[in-house]
Amino acid sequence: xxxxxxxxxxxxxxxxxAISTQERDETLPALQSxxxxxxxxxxxxxxxxxxxAHPHDPGLRLRADQAESLPPREDLMRNAPQSAGGLFIVxxxxx
Amino acid sequence: xxxxxxxxxxxxxxxxxxxxxxxxxxxxxxxxPNTQAHMVDMALPGVLPVMNREAAACxxxxxxxxxxxxxxxxxxxxxxxxxxxxxxxxxxxxxEIPVVSGGQVRIITDQGQRSIELTRAHLEExxxxxxxxxxxxxxxxxxxxxxNRAGTPLLEIVSEPVMRSAKEAAAxxxxxxxxxxxxxxxxxxxxxxxxxxxANVSVRPVGQQAFGTRCEIKNLNSFRFLERAIEVxxxxxxxxxxxxxxxxxxxxxxDPDAEQTRAMRSKEDAHDYRYFPDPDLPPLIISPDWIExxxxxxxxxxxxxxxxxxxxxxxxxxxxxxxxxxxxxxxxFFQVIRAGEGQGVDAKLAANWIMxxxxxxxxxxxxxxxxxxxxxxxxxxxxxxxADGTISNKIARDVFASLWxxxxxxxxxxxxxxxxxxxxxxxxxTGFVDEVIAANPKMVEEFKAGKxxxxxxxxxxxxxxxxxxxxxxxxxxxxxxxxxx
Amino acid sequence: MTASIPDFSDLAGLAKGLANGAFxxxxxxxxxxxxxxxxxxxxxxxxxxEASLRQAEAAQAQLTSALAGRAGSPGLGFSLCGLPIAHKxxxxxxxxxxxxxxxxxxxxxxxxxxxxxxxxxFAGMVCVAKLNCDEFAMGSGNTHSxxxxxxxxxxxxxxxxxxxxxxxxxxxxGLVPAATGTDTGGSIRQPAAMCGLTGxxxxxxxxxxxxMIAYASSLDQAGPIARTxxxxxVLLSAMCGFDQKDSTSLELDxxxxxxxxxxxxxxxxxxxxxxxxxxxxxKEFFADGLSAEVRAAIDxxxxxxxxxxxxxxxxxxxxxxxxxxxxxxxxxxxxxSNLSRFDGVRYGHRAADPKDLMDxxxxxxxxxxxxxxxxxxxxxxxVLSHGYYDAYYIQAQRVRRLxxxxxxxxxxxxxxxxxxxxxxxxxxxxxxxxxxLQEYLADIYTLGVNLAGLPAMSVPVGFGQAGAAQRPIGMQxxxxxxxxxxxxxxxxxxQAATDWHTRTPPPVxxxx
Lengths: 95, 485, 512
Prior knowledge:
The complex is a heterotrimer.
Chain A: H1 5-14, H2 21-39, E1 62-63, H3 73-76, E2 83-84, E3 87-91
Antiparallel strand pairs in A: 2-3
Chain B: E1 3-14, E2 51-52, H1 53-65, E3 69-70, E4 73-74, E5 77-80, E6 90-93, E7 100-101, E8 104-109, E9 112-125, E10 129-131, E11 142-146, E12 153-159, H2 166-182, E13 195-205, E14 215-220, H3 223-242, E15 251-255, E16 260-263, E17 276-277, E18 284-285, H4 288-297, H5 302-313, H6 317-323, H7 327-339, H8 347-365, H9 376-387, H10 393-405, H11 411-418, H12 426-439, H13 441-448, H14 452-465, H15 472-484
Parallel strand pairs in B: 14-15
Antiparallel strand pairs in B: 1-12, 1-13, 3-7, 4-18, 5-6, 5-17, 7-9, 8-9, 9-12, 10-11, 13-14, 15-16
Helix pairs in contact in B: 2-3, 6-8, 7-8, 7-9, 9-10, 12-14, 12-15, 13-14, 14-15
Chain C: H1 11-19, H2 25-37, E1 44-46, H3 49-69, E2 84-88, H4 115-122, E3 126-131, H5 165-172, E4 178-183, H6 189-194, E5 198-201, E6 221-226, H7 229-239, E7 278-282, H8 292-307, E8 311-315, H9 320-338, H10 357-368, H11 371-384, H12 389-410, E9 416-420, H13 436-441, H14 447-452, E10 456-466, E11 469-478, H15 484-497
Parallel strand pairs in C: 2-3, 7-8, 7-9
Antiparallel strand pairs in C: 1-3, 4-6, 5-6, 5-10, 9-11, 10-11
């Protein structure tokens, strides 16, 4: 497949990465070569093979439904770039 | 052009667990912002999810209640998108292999009964909340993020797009709401957002097989709004098409003041959620033993109960539906029947009283049935006195009011204290009848001329004379026989 | 007093010193902190002397009371109490900043410690530093750190390997006797090899990932880098164990990997302690691409293992070549999702004056992430996106299963697999890197292990030349699931019969 500049811009937007036109043009060839190379996977004969998501496949361990007390909110929010009244502050969320 | 409306509903049900689905933070409503957000809920670097057993149990309970298939092995998947109330930048949900598939919910509308098929139900986590200006601390032009709700367990229940009217959709939403509260997996509190509905609405000309383009109306948390929103949205789509336009697939919100839907501004980007199995969570395994254990603990379900109420107790479909609106209501009903055994307290009477004076008093005071001021035993005692003719139905309502006020412990006590016994002495009644006939010649004339209304008037006069304590049937018979002689 | 602490001591040696009172834990800590301050390799990202000394005092108190009453422990195992440890800056720590070698987490102070960090602290170890690495563990040479590359102590022009480059460099230079690392595609084994050290990645799920900043969740594992197999065994035992906060953690009883490490194999005699051991050599590991000098060093080590009683036979891992693209689909896919939380909202770098939410996200992330991280996020986003998911991601997961099956089949004919760690010795820090594939292809021998979730280690077996300097070579040992003890025992006996692991680089910029 051939990734073009617009495709790359769409990917960058999906991934929320700002990318200048220059960066886009610089990044494109390397990205294309990696994607072409991993695309060779499609040649591998894999009919009938179940995909493997985990190295081992135990069942999901379940925890008892108990509420625990938490550390003070200030501890968990101490790295917040902007907070007020116990809320994380961001530019207006538009619905 | 005849149009058909096609509706499918996605209901997000908050599961009534103590802790969140993947973290041990409490799920209680109303805490100060971010005081119920565990580091897992805040998506701090290095955190990992651990699944809550009770959330899975709730899903199993639901699957059994709707007769769906419960997956022995279901997978959690990441739904990737960026939003400030979604701390990880992905929601842990289920995609290809949900915990429940299929199933159905029966609804009753004025067109009759039908079954609404379900596509699936899956487990996922709720997001946090965005608060906007108006909350003091939030600077202008900003929003404040509270993650208390992030991580609350949700069961997303998806119906097949088989509903054909807003009324059907509302009936389905109500029936589903009753069911999830009935089996105890949800507290059903609409104001607190425990039960939220998204409606997928499209229209097509009657007879067309293909579906029209649909729009999704999000976050409806009242059945009234749901019904109205679907109606206005269907209308909007029909008008749009009839004017030569085409419906764009989009997500919309309902504005109850304007009674209109509008497109959500933030969803202009087509979402590619890039679902993939969450590598932090192995597959959820549900054994047949676990399913059987939960099945054995399930209460009698509304469907089966209503059938029993009709067949064993002779209630009409409508009465059965009303009495089984909630489990506490039907428990109360059975208590009344039990307490009144052998005293002529029949099911129909009990149902009438529960749907009547009990319900109206509870509504007036904003109470639930478990806060009723007339106990089942008291009500049974009251109904018994109507059944055995001690008091008329009209007097009984006054007795009920006295019981509700808490002044008297039993119906008998009220009847005794206020001397409300129906007059049995036929001599006394005959006397009243003769007096009334004598005093109302015009009414007598009219009755003899064929006007039944005049009879009621005469009966009314006798009831007044007797201070309501005469037996109306007896009075009616006496007047008839007197005037026909 | 501190003159009695020998340079390049291993943990076992230092433990003896503490046990017989040659020096105290606080003295040892001070000595280590001075070493670390004199870095010269850019291996250290953060120190907190007050916190380290507090831990040392607590350890000393434990040591003093323990020494009073305890008989010597059986075998070679030793207590970790009072011994220094440095952590790769991927593990979150309360008292040191954690950056994952990224600008996006500059100054981040975690409210909790990683489980691995906590376990070592409970064993009495003293944390002395956070160490440099490739940003978010993505890289094979520590050249992708936002805080600059780390130098290889053997040859300052060379990379120390990656992504746990800071950990390997610090231990190899004798700044600290051991360090923790993480291994997603070889990031413990390869830097250990390139720095002449011993390192081990346990079976997936042995060590808890709670507090280990996630790169690729189904591949990441923590492990130690140290000077000897014995040191690794003792450290690994302390690091591993079931953790209920990690749903992928294996529910196994704690294992002492050092128990009986010096004993011969059950069917073997003392003179040939590895008698009966069947070692498989995958023919795909010895094909074109493997440099002659690495091959020669491996061959010499294999000859040694044969003298110790092992039997070598050829096995095959047919999907070795495919393991590279499979890894470079799966790891970036998981990483692209794991790194979405770095969005400038709740912690980490936030761009100045964002004009709206989209701007906040896009600029914060673009400013905070380095080139390699961004590249992998884009690759990951692509392979998961609509229309490509089946052909790329699902296909890679199928190949993953085949790779795992290859190992299962091979282990039917052998007890462990041996081979190179990397095709060449460490390359230059300044080597031109226009083509990222070059770096990726060098991971050929290590990636399959992570895809299959198996335990594997690296042991030093010699040197290659790079001009006038020597650059170390490591041999890889791969075991079936849960067979860490066998790997460590094999490595132990090899080290008992050889001395590559005792070699040290020229001292780094220190005054006496």
